[in-house]
Amino acid sequence: MSLKFELREFSPPLLEFGGPGEFSDPREGLRSGGPFDLRFGAARSDRVCVGIVGTAAMIDSALEWFRRAEGELLDEPSVTAYPAFAGFEVIFRAKLTIADHWTVKFDDREFAEALETANPSQRFDLVLSMYQSSIRRLSKLESTRPDVVVCCVSDEVLVKCRNVTKTLTREEKRAAEALKKRKASTQYDMFDEMAIDEAQPEDLLYRDFRRALKARAMKEQMPIQIATGGLFVDGRSGQGSATRAWNSSVGLYYKSGGIPWRLKTEGPETCFVGISFNHIKTTERHLVKSSIAQAFSSQGEAFALRGGDIEWTEEQGRAVHLTGEQAYQLGQDILSEYRDRAGGVPLRVVMHKSSKFSPEEIDGFRSALDDVPVVELINIMPTTFRLVRFGAYPPNRGTLCSVNDASSYLFTTGYMQELNTYPGPHIPAPVEIRSDRAIDIERVSKDILGLARMNWNTASITGGQPVTLRFARQVGGIMAEYGQATQERPLTSFRFYM
User: Fold this and answer.
1) Residues 343, 237: contact at Cβ < 8 Å?
2) Mean predicted lDDT score pLDDT of the chain
3) Rounded distance between C-alpha atoms, residue 471 and residue 455, angstroms
4) Distance from C-alpha of 430 to C-alpha of 23, rounded to nearest angstrom
5) Which of 1, 22, 306, 460 is the most buried (most CB within 10 A)?
6) How far is residue 386's CA from residue 298's CA, in Å, rounded to a whole number?
7) Which of 207-211, 286-290, 419-423, 489-493 has the lowest mean pLDDT?
């Protein structure tokens, strides 16, 4: 049997900013046109109000860093890969504002006692509570409260509170062991970026301080940016000062309520949704799989929803699916949240999932989205497929390989002509694209490549995962933390999860 191979290469996706012009590199676009929300005119704030929480020493480091970020910062050695940071106000057309009444310093003795608590779980919760009470203090200000709070996390906190072992039920222990077995048996995971945000054994075995802190901040309805000495001090993270400034400033601007850039899309207004599953513990049941929907509109809105819970057994493995009723309800919730944020129903909904949609899920989602003119259910699946090209570098990012007009493989990582190199550590692995119906494979591929540039937590152009699936594990972990003590629905704005 002969095999027919067809190769196509797509140009880097284009992004829109505040001024005219379209750019593939967010840094170039921000320098030239400013953030996208400049188009909102008077409705946009020209200040980013930042609160700071932490020890006196860490706050001093933070203040010095933000002072430096007001001016130009340079990196070495490559100007192309590491462009200069021209200063926060120059880049974002908004003044970075920090005031004394938005700064909360921990009591040194109380903080030291919390860190010296012998019991790891108690120490974890005591330190966590100190951050939460400080965030609450800023969130309750009667006059002007900050837009975002920077939580300064010292090396000592990272060492003593990075994670803590959970007290596991029998079901949780079995689930963790099952995840360990599956992880050990998947030989190609080290090459597979799409596997990064799937459930991992440590998610069940440990509580993560960063996720717990974001969940506590969500309870106070305050977006936060977690910052360590790696950001504030040169030489600590291996990144230059300009790179650190670019990445942290984009995240800070988005969490403060801004929209750094928007994906340029051809065609109708679209809502892109990622569907994933994460373990969660509830008050009624010890262990279930909870569905997560991460939605991103072509207009710049982003939100996350927790869907239905599925009783989980070890035998299910990765084959976890919603019932038809749960898929219908989640689809309805997505439309409702989108309508509240964008003022209407999208003309196109594209759903991404890293595993197959079951027949029940297909029927449920399509019934819920019946009023949407175009609905596409897309599987973006890990694969062992590889391509080797002549020369020293792997295939270009944006290469689509179709085999026998039946299977389609898209390289979301690979050689990048913008950087004149391949920035990845391993052999690039494409994803396989499937759907339950005929699709425009070129448009779907361009969507996936574009959504990889919609990570507002960084200005880097090297990421390969579409944002619809990239944060699945983190979002699920924060929702799980949020739901441990209460059955209240987590907030939906994606600013609380990034």
Assistant:
1) no
2) 87
3) 9
4) 25
5) 306
6) 32
7) 286-290
Task: Indicate the residue type of 228.
Answer: T
* Amino acid at position 258, single letter: G
Q: How far is CA 139 from CA 350, 359, 490, in A?
A: 36, 45, 17
Q: Where are the beta strands (DSSP E) in 166-287?
A: 206-208, 224-227, 262-263, 270-280
Interstrand relation of 431-435 and 407-410 (parallel, antiparallel or unpaired): antiparallel
DSSP 447-473: HHHHHTT--TT---S---S-HHHHTHH
Q: Which fold has domain 17-162+207-260?
A: Rossmann fold (3.40.50)
Q: Where in the chain is the domain with CATH 3.30.420.10?
A: 262-482
Which CATH architecture is the domain 262-482 placed in?
Answer: 2-Layer Sandwich (3.30)
User: Residue 186: pLDDT band by 50, 70, 90 thresholds?
Assistant: very low
CA atoms within 13 A on the CB side of 46: 4
Cβ-based neighbours of 306, under 8 Å, separated by 6 or more: 290, 291, 292, 293, 479, 483, 489, 490
**CB-based contact 371:363 (threshold 8 Å):** no
Evaluate if residue 192 carries a pLDDT over 50: no
| Comma-separated ranges of CATH 3.40.50.2300 domains in the chain | 17-162+207-260
* Section 461-487 average pLDDT: 83
DSSP labels, 475-497: HHHHHHHHTTS--SPPP-BGGGT
Question: Which backbone phi and psi does 393 adopt, to 5 degrees?
Answer: -115, 160
Residue showing tokens 């590491």: 82
Mean pLDDT of 236-253: 93
Q: CA 282, CA 277: separation in Å to the nearest integer? A: 15
- What is the reported pTM? 0.89
Q: What would you report as the CA-atom Rg of the chain, rounded to the nearest whole angstrom?
A: 23
Which residue from 396, 398, 489, 474 is spatially nearest to 198, judged by alpha carbons? 474
pLDDT tens-digit series, residues 49-73: 999 999 999 999 999 999 999 999 9
- Check: CB of residue 171 under 8 Å from CB of residue 285: no
